[in-house]
Design a protein that fits this description.
- It comes from Plectus sambesii.
- This protein is α/β, with parallel strands linked by helices.
- The chain contains 40 helices and 40 strands.
- It has a 6-stranded mixed β-sheet with strand order 3-2-1-4-5-6, sandwiched between helices.
- Strand 14 and strand 15 form a beta hairpin.
- Helix 1 runs antiparallel to helix 2.
- The longest helix is centred in the middle third of the chain and has 16 residues.
């Protein structure tokens, strides 16, 4: 079938968001059915409102490209004009282009929710009669004007209705496809064609539903009982249903419950989000209906206040089956009936029994049967009319269980006032069990409980007074009654530490302290008296006699908190005077908030216990959490906790989440050989904390990380951080890896995260997710992690209580889902090249040893699609290699006017890890391509960066243009001196093949791709063939045996430039190149770019700048232009053998540097470190981010390889502050290391260096501390003054003298020279100020 098709989408503001999304979906499905090529179908896509947007000529895009183009089309909000004539003029212009084929079939497809606002009929007639175009219009929604569209299209037969009840999206697509395939579109005039009588409208409504106020619980059967086609049809019906209401908290609120084996809830308080959820929520494949869980979920929504309590409430249950799992749902249905909630049901498939549904909702009048197209056409109107008339049925059940529905021990009393009565007079003694019987998480939670509980009182000598004690083998009081209050108490509790190793709890000693305080003047006999004791066990002495004395003689009431599953409720009941005064906490079914509330109720109502307890029986409802399905103490894992700390999670919810996470982490054996945690918090940016393998550090970090208030989820950055952690080799081989994403929102910023998720999954990482806020879409989370079985909904206290156990059991069972993510960009399918391309092997030979530098042109010379395709080209190319330090290693670099990404060799252990970084590359805003910078970086890094003499060395450069500087000399040096080969990929029609041939050493090493006669896939195969067969070019292009294509000519190098051969260049001895006092250094005032030898080098005066490293250098005439990089060859470091260094590297992460400078400073550090042998018997480095705070991970002994240090640098980001507090850095890093040498790896006998790189200086006063380290402890100090704004004078004071300040990052200083100067200074052991 040969077609040229013009597709026009109405992107005006006339459609609502749901309709616009559906129209996009229609087009994507319709266009997915064609076979695209220059011989078969070509499509051009346009959008139209007030103006028309043309997305390219016929045939430019194909296949899934259209899906991306259409999805990326946005509505013109507020623009209600549709000037279709403008779009038709664009079509006529495209018809006149070369891609248009007069002999093909021709079709214009127009989709709209209205029609048009101009008069396009004359142009439509011209397109039909003069240009042979047929028309097909899609009238989407009930407001589309079928008559006007029929006039436009040439007949009613060429208008297809969609987006109305009774017409599913799939049906409309099928109709359009049938018309297209049968060439039955219209090209005649429509003025005499009558409207068909079959276009019907839905039945009228008995009220204006826009004025109604309701809470509607839509319980939707998403089980296997409903077929995929029927479910898609149901989605359209539901969109039509909800769109009839004013959706808001003040009018109609929807609670959307997706039901199969487990119910999921989504709040519908906005029409756009409600429709979006309905359209995106996918059907499950589980059988049965867990309706009990759904009704319990509704009950919890009512009780929690998540839905307005003052509105009429109705449950609409849409069912494909009445095969109820668990138990019959009638008991829980009755609970809802008693809360005045009404019921309606829809029989949506034959498996749903009408009698059962009628019994559930109270009668046949409240059940609608919708098992075919005719009945489904009226379903939305029937439901809407029910809400109009409110003629619901009265449900009553004869099978209600007589068993109590609430366990006695967890029954909640009426809610207390916001605070206890202000005139409530209390003297309270609080006792905290600080023994070693609780784990770290439990101890922190007990402290949190007390702080929350005590925050509720009004403190004064006239009202409430508190004394706080802690008890283990001894008891300690922190003051008399009333000595501390409010926040002071919170601080006292927070700074109480466990008695590690002390497992005794001598409560008698605490009671003796209390008896003594009762006898003091602060005690008020007329007040209410309470002793509150919180413990994870009970006690180890015999305090019952004293407890009885305190109750009977001193009038004390007792309240004990049994925290955790090991607390002995029976012993605590004896102590307290009854089971009613023992509250369970720290178990799966009881949240901290709940138990604080219970304790508060008892306190405010004075119903604590003061009777003797020996005759009180234990309550049978005191329960323990469900057991784990394995011994989690023995599991081995790398767990990445990716936690949403954005504004989508409230502070209260976030505090509760911290508690849950500490419980979760504390149950594992946290150690190198068991479980390692990495915490990544994410909002608009991601922050990574590599947690050292101890449970204390994990818990400390979780508890002390405060919530941010950023917007959205930059999940791509979070996943990139995980990817970078992978490159640090911290995970023992074979260790299972799990990423747990806890999300309050799925509003993803900086692009969708699915490609990166797929990358991590291909590296062996499994995923689970927790829906922790209503803005987190369950469908999006399920798609992200691979399925609904790997998502846990934790939106209320009940579900959150089970969250920890669910996550832990996931790590036990390892029943994860398989991620199948459709890549966000795919290469356009083009006609295969006519050149013969032999298929490469499945992978390059395993024993092939290659170091490959991938260079991506990120300039604006490529359009967005080309840039995406170029990235995919590189990824597809790398899939064929064996990633291993013995075989193939890759470096990835992006370039435009400056470096973008710089990732050194060997960073990646899999194609997935590399692909993640490549896909995150973004285009710059410049058209410049300074390729020479990249080649200089490669040249300078080869001798120092894990150099492998036996490796094949390749630069693969992909560009849509060429280059704008002059990189040819350094390219020649790389080929001739360093043994590099080049492959360049000329992507698209505008790539300069001649330029790239000069760069690569011959036309044989220029591969065309992304053009009509050379597909991207062909280009990848050709590049692989050349790589695997070592048949690349490394000769000069002028002598290349391969002649250029006849249509091109070789452009000679510019006559004004002389390309100096590196063999004639004298290597520079740069040991003298320090920046000293101006009086001792003479620099020549010329304009050359030549670095001369320190003693005898002679260079010619030119019209460019010459920089001299010593006062004796002279220059002499020449007319050649010599680039810095072509003349300077760095001398290798001359460090003494066996030199040991402990180097503290401080990177200024304030915003005094611009983004480019910040990247360069990190590159400087990398190149500096690469000169040293890293290890415990050689040199150790600790890299610290310094701004207004200090951030580093581990110690000097943490990083064993260059790659680990380089990865650590990747994790460092700039901070939004101008402060650089170096005094804080010296105290908290250097002094701390000296005082904790065993932990941090500080070696007394090593040489010690503080290395500080900054684009400014410092904002506090670190000079005295620096001077002390230099003079008293023998430290060397060196500062790198990066860029023109660095303060040389202040850095000289800090470093002990100007000789220890090295300038870099300015036009007159080459980075490689500055790095070498820093290395030489370090190796010389001659620093300033000693």
């Amino acid at each position: 079938m040969i077609y040229d098709i013009f597709v026009i989408l109405d992107d005006s503001g006339n459609s609502n968001t749901a309709q616009f999304l559906e129209m996009q979906s229609f087009l994507i499905q319709y266009l997915s059915k064609f076979t695209y090529s220059s011989r078969y179908t070509q499509v051009s896509y346009l959008s139209v409102s007030k103006t028309a947007t043309d997305y390219g000529p016929l045939g430019l895009y194909a296949g899934t490209d259209f899906a991306h183009l259409i999805k990326d089309t946005y509505q013109a909000q507020g623009d209600n004009l549709i000037n279709l004539r403008i779009a038709f003029q664009v079509v006529i212009d495209l018809i006149k282009e070369t891609a248009y084929r007069p002999s093909a079939h021709h079709l214009i497809v127009y989709i709209t929710t209205t029609s048009y606002t101009d008069d396009p009929l004359t142009m439509a007639s011209q397109l039909r009669n003069q240009y042979g175009q047929s028309f097909l219009s899609i009238a989407y929604g009930s407001n589309a004007d079928v008559d006007k569209l029929a006039q436009l299209s040439g007949g009613y037969d060429c208008v297809i209705r969609a987006g109305i009840p009774g017409v599913s999206l799939d049906d409309a697509v099928l109709q359009a496809w049938n018309k297209t395939c049968s060439y039955a579109a219209c090209n005649e005039s429509a003025t005499t064609t009558p409207a068909p009588s079959t276009i019907s409208s839905p039945p009228p409504l008995s009220c204006d539903t826009k004025l109604l106020s309701n809470v509607i619980y839509l319980v939707i059967d998403a089980s296997s009982a409903v077929s995929d086609d029927d479910y898609d049809e149901l989605r359209n019906i539901l969109v039509n249903f909800v769109s009839g209401y004013t959706v808001s908290n003040m009018e109609t609120v929807f609670a959307l419950i997706h039901l199969s084996d487990i119910p999921y809830y989504f709040p519908g308080t906005d029409l756009e989000y409600t429709v979006d959820w309905i359209m995106k929520n996918n059907k499950g494949d589980k059988s049965g209906q867990n309706l009990n869980e759904a009704f319990l979920l509704i009950n919890s929504l009512v009780k929690s206040g998540a839905v307005p309590a003052d509105l009429p409430q109705v449950v609409i249950y849409i069912s494909g089956t009445t095969e109820f799992t668990e138990n019959a749902p009638y008991d829980n249905a009755d609970i809802l009936v008693q809360a005045s909630i009404k019921f309606l049901a829809v029989q949506y498939e034959q498996q749903a029994d009408l009698n059962t549904l009628a019994y559930l909702v109270g009668g046949e009048n409240c059940v609608y049967s919708a098992t075919n197209s005719d009945s489904r056409n009226g379903m939305a109107a029937w439901l809407q009319n029910k809400t109009c008339t409110q003629d619901y049925c009265n449900a009553s059940y004869t099978t209600i269980s007589t068993a109590p529905t609430v366990p006695l021990s967890t029954a909640i009393t009426t809610l207390p006032p916001d605070s206890c009565p202000e005139d409530m007079i209390y003297d309270i003694f609080v006792i905290l069990d600080d023994s070693g019987n609780s784990n770290t998480a439990q101890f922190l939670e007990m402290q949190s409980f007390l702080i929350q509980y005590l925050s509720k009182f009004t403190y004064s000598p006239s009202y409430t007074q508190v004394s706080f004690l802690s008890a283990s083998s001894t008891a300690m009081a922190t003051g008399t009654l009333g000595f501390y209050k409010d926040s002071e108490l919170a601080q006292i509790i927070q700074y109480t530490y466990q008695s590690t190793g002390d497992y005794f709890i001598n409560i008698q000693s605490a009671f003796r302290v209390i008896v003594d305080m009762i006898k003091e003047k602060e005690y008020r006999p007329s007040a209410h008296h309470l002793i509150l004791y919180i413990t994870t066990t009970s006690y180890t002495d015999d305090p019952l006699t004293m407890a009885s004395q305190l109750r009977n003689q001193y009038g004390q009431s007792f309240l004990t908190i049994a925290y955790g599953s090991n607390a002995d409720v029976d012993k605590l009941a004896q102590l307290s005077g009854g089971y009613d005064c023992v509250l369970r906490a720290g178990v799966a079914e009881v949240s901290v908030d709940d138990v604080v509330l219970q304790a508060w109720n008892k306190t405010c109502s004075y119903i604590s216990c003061n009777e003797s307890a020996p005759t009180t029986t234990a309550a049978s409802t005191v329960s323990s959490p469900s057991p784990h399905s394995c011994d989690i103490k023995s599991v081995k894992y790398m767990i990445y906790l990716v936690v949403d700390d954005s504004s989508a999670v409230s502070k209260i919810d976030y505090d509760q989440l911290r508690t849950f996470l500490t419980v979760f982490a504390s149950e594992y054996t946290v150690a190198d050989d068991n479980v390692i945690f990495t915490l990544i918090t994410v909002s608009h940016e991601a922050m990574t904390y590599l947690l050292s393998p101890s449970v204390e550090d994990v818990v400390y970090t979780l508890i002390n990380h405060n919530k941010q208030d950023g917007m959205g989820q930059n999940l791509n950055e979070a996943f990139l951080s995980v990817n970078q952690v992978l490159t640090m080799n911290l995970v023992p081989p074979g260790t299972p890896q799990l990423l747990i994403y806890i999300s309050g929102t799925t509003e993803f910023s900086q692009g969708e995260p699915y490609d990166m998720a797929s990358t991590l999954n291909s590296a062996g990482i499994k995923f689970v997710a927790v829906q922790y806020g209503p803005q987190a879409d369950l469908s999006a989370l399920a798609y992200l992690v691979g399925g609904e079985d790997c998502v846990y909904s934790a939106l209320d206290s009940d579900s959150r209580d089970g969250m920890v156990l669910w996550l832990q059991n996931k790590t036990c069972n390892e029943d994860y889902c398989n991620i199948t993510v459709t890549p966000s960009s795919t290469t356009a399918s083009m006609t295969s090249s006519t050149d013969s391309v032999t298929s490469p092997p499945q992978s390059c030979p395993q024993d092939m040893v290659s170091d490959v530098y991938l260079v991506l042109d990120q300039s604006l010379n490529a359009d967005a699609t080309q840039f995406s395709d170029m990235k995919e080209f590189l990824i597809d190319y790398t899939r064929n290699f064996t990633f291993d330090s013995k075989y193939s290693r890759f470096s990835f670099i992006t370039i435009s006017d400056f470096f973008g990404t710089i990732e050194p060799l060997g960073m990646y252990n899999s194609v997935g890890a590399l692909a993640g970084v490549i896909r995150l590359a973004i285009q710059s805003q410049s058209t410049e391509i300074n390729l020479g910078m990249v080649l200089n970086y490669i040249k300078n890094s080869v001798p120092i960066n894990e150099y492998r003499p036996d490796a094949h060395r390749l630069v693969l450069y992909i560009t849509a243009a060429g280059f704008t500087d002059d990189p040819l000399t350094v390219a020649t040096q790389l080929r001739n001196e360093r043994g590099f080969s080049f492959i360049t990929v000329a992507y698209g029609e505008k790539a300069d093949v001649d330029q790239l041939a000069q760069l690569s050493g011959g036309y044989d090493c220029v591969i065309k791709a992304g053009v009509a006669d050379a597909s991207s896939a062909d280009g990848v195969q050709t590049a692989l063939n050349k790589t695997c067969s070592y048949s690349m070019c490394n000769e000069s292009v002028t002598t290349a045996s391969t002649t250029p294509p006849a249509v091109t000519t070789t452009s000679p190098p510019p006559t004004s430039a002389t390309y100096t051969d590196a063999a004639t260049t004298t290597s520079l001895q740069t040991t003298s190149m320090t920046y000293t006092d101006a009086a001792t250094t003479t620099s020549l005032q010329t304009t050359s770019m030549i670095y001369t030898d320190a003693a005898t080098t002679t260079s010619s005066p030119t019209t460019s700048k010459t920089y001299s490293a010593a006062a004796t250098t002279t220059s002499s005439p020449t007319t050649s232009r010599t680039d810095i990089s072509t003349v300077t060859t760095m001398a290798p470091p001359a460090c003494p053998a066996g030199l040991t260094y402990d180097v503290f590297v401080f990177l200024d992460c304030s915003n005094t540097a611009n983004a480019a400078q910040f990247l360069e400073m990190k590159t400087f550090i990398r190149q500096f470190i690469a000169n040293f042998t890293i290890g415990p018997t050689n040199s150790q480095f600790l890299i610290t981010s310094i701004s207004d705070n200090v951030l580093n991970f581990g110690g000097l002994n943490t990083y064993k390889t260059y790659k680990q240090l380089s990865s650590q640098l990747n994790l460092m980001i700039q901070q939004p502050t101008t402060s650089t507090d170096m005094e804080l850095g010296l105290q908290s890093v250097v002094i701390q290391a000296m005082n904790n040498s065993a932990t941090i790896g500080y070696r007394q006998n090593a040489n010690h260096l503080v290395f500080f790189i900054t684009a400014g200086s410092y904002t506090d006063d670190p000079v005295a501390t620096a001077s002390s380290l230099i003079k008293q402890h023998g430290f060397g100090f060196m500062s790198i003054a990066y860029g023109p704004n660095a303060d040389l004078a202040k850095l000289g004071l800090f470093s002990g003298g100007s000789d220890c300040v090295i300038k870099a990052g300015t036009p007159d200083v080459d980075m490689a020279d500055a790095v070498q100067s820093a290395v030489n200074k370090t190796c010389s052991l001659k620093f300033c100020g000693a």
